[in-house]
Amino acid sequence: MAEDESDFIDAKGAEAKARRSIWSGSISIGLVNVPVKLYSMTKDRSFSFRLLHKADGQPLRYDRVCIKEGKVIPWEETVKGYEVRKGEFIVFDKKELEAARPESDSRIRIDKFVDYLAVDPIYWDTPYLLAPDKSGDAYSLLLTTFQKLGKAGVGRITLRTKEYPVLVHASRGALLLTTLRYADEVLPVKGIEGLDGLREPRREELEMAERIVKDLSGDFDIADYKDGFRERIMKLIDKKLAGEIVVTEKPKKEEAKELMAALQETLAQLKKKGP
Amino acid sequence: MRLVDFKELTKVPLSNLDKVIYPKLGITKAKIIEHYVRAAPLILPFLEGRAAVMNRFPDGVGEEGFYEKDAPKGTPSWVKIYKRYSETARREINYVVCDDLDTLIWMANLAAVEINMPLSKVSSYEAPDFILFDIDPEPPFGFSEACQVALMLLDELESFGYRSYVKTSGKKGLHVVIPIVPSSNFEKTREFVHQMGRLLAKKSRMVVSEFSQSRDPSTVFVDFLQNGAGRTMVVPYSLRATPTATVSTPISWTDLRKGIRPEEFHILTVAGRLKELGPGGDPWSGLLEDRQELG
């Protein structure tokens, strides 16, 4: 099933692009630099539908329409605004925004090393693959050190126009870079209803619960889980492509026939009643 | 390719039959015409001799529609016209008078999804022959509250000796009407409805009788304002421009008391209901002969 799917997407040319490196620079630890390339490591499999005009099946496009004039506004005539109060904006032009953006200096700056398993996964955002850029020896040395000590590097990277905290760590026989969330991007647990004053479980309850957990324990395998909706839609797409599914709408001829029958019945009924 | 020839059945040149008018349900103009054709025996007696107002949705009910009082350009010569000077438009309006099936089909073919009738005939324009209580709930109140108020109104009207009739508006409200002998004027009918509204408002906290309160949340407004010359109500069995193609459907008071859901009555169910009720089984049959005196 999984292979069929990627075939399908390959045909559309999306998959082929996925493994091109998206950034190159170097990991810098103090005075040591390890040149690397960055690759995507994940892919969003949730697919999207295009919105079409029902009557003629043509794709619809979104336009930037001015709320006041109701007219489409060209890009040149746009600026960015930050809404401070409802309907009130602080306006920024391109230069101001450029000046505030972090400079991309092609460096992954490692600030310190931490225990890999001590980083709370809640901060993990998007993983990327780091590959050596003609720097196999240095790369291998860093990778092996991390593997041996169970350590990871914490630092920063600037990707496009945003600076991210990152974790550089060893996984699957390679170095990965995982962007992290900022502290204020994670919401507190406090203040959510039902979490205050939880009762301490009784000992016998706890023992039973522990037994259940032990009985159901196993090895983690993400392949146990499938996106059922996606699979069903993919099957439908295959069927539709193969011409197996007839469009569910009523054929137009039928509708005309029904209208014709209605006309005949009503005319007969009105005739009986008389004018 | 034309498989069927409508020409022998109607003089209306039907056009764009497969144009989708209700996008959510994929309902085409052919279906809309079919609906009006099937309901015609019940609709035509109400439109007869009246200046109909169309609410047209040529681009489907997802787009804005427009009220059309004036017969549009290209109106065939066989369509009956009633000319009358309009104070609001400040010109003479050519109203369509829908006296026959062909005119009804012609309107449906113009994507007149909603068809409205004034509460008087053109022969006595200033003298209403219907009294209309437009029962309009304001959220979070909805249809069930509208029903409660309609049933309260029924009790009051009965105690005054009036026989009234009810239909769903096709949206959240109800229309209660009393057919009357056209010997009065709109000022009187409007005042009558307003007074009944005030009476109900005194008896129940959920009812409001004044236009200024009509948008108060959790209220049911007994709207008297449609009782005016040139004001209209959707005809019984008119489609509504709702996503689910609901139909303004006459209901017997007994059924209303038992409890109904207005969403049950839509373009795909009404034909079946008519068949089930049989000829003369419509809750509003006999209404037009039941004209009462407004005392």
Q: Characterize the largest beta sheet of chain A: strand count, sense, and whether it forms a barrel.
A: 7 strands, mixed, barrel
Order of helices and strands of chain A: HHEEEEHEEHEEEHHH
Most extensive protein-chain contact, per-chain counts: A-B, 20 and 23 residues
**What is the topology, as strand order, of the major beta sheet of chain A?**
1-2-6-9-8-7-5
What is the CATH architecture term of the largest domain in chain B? Answer: Alpha-Beta Complex
Task: Determine and state the CATH class of the domain at 23-46 and 101-184 in chain A.
Answer: Mainly Beta
Oligomeric nature of the chains: heterodimer
Q: Which fold does the CATH topology of the largest domain in chain B refer to?
A: DNA primase, PRIM domain
Identify the CATH architecture of the domain at 23-46 and 101-184 in chain A.
Answer: Beta Barrel
Our measurement of the CA-to-CA distance between the termini of chain A, rounded to an integer number of angstroms, reads 67 Å
Estimate what percentage of residues of chain A fall within beta strands: 25-35%
Share of helical residues of chain A: 25-40%
Q: What would you note in describing this structure?
A:
The complex is a heterodimer of chains A (275) and B (295). Chain A contains seven helices and nine strands, in the order ααββββαββαβββααα. Chain A is an alpha+beta fold and 275 residues long. Among the domains of chain A are: 23-46 and 101-184, Ku70, Chain: A, Domain 2; 203-273, no CATH class. In chain A, the strands form two sheets. Chain A has a seven-stranded mixed β-barrel with strand order 1-2-6-9-8-7-5. In chain A, strands 3-4 form a two-stranded antiparallel ribbon. The longest helix of chain A is centred in the C-terminal third of the chain and has 22 residues, at 252-273. Chain A is extended, with a radius of gyration of 30 Å. The termini of chain A are far apart. Residues 1-18 and 245-249 of chain A have low confidence and may be disordered. Chain B is an alpha+beta fold and 295 residues long. In chain B, the strands form three sheets. In chain B, strands 3, 4, 5, 6, 7 and 13 form a six-stranded antiparallel beta sheet that branches. The longest helix of chain B has 19 residues, at 29-47. Chain B starts with 19 loop residues before the first strand and ends in an 18-residue tail after the last helix. Chains A and B meet through α7 of A and α1 of B.
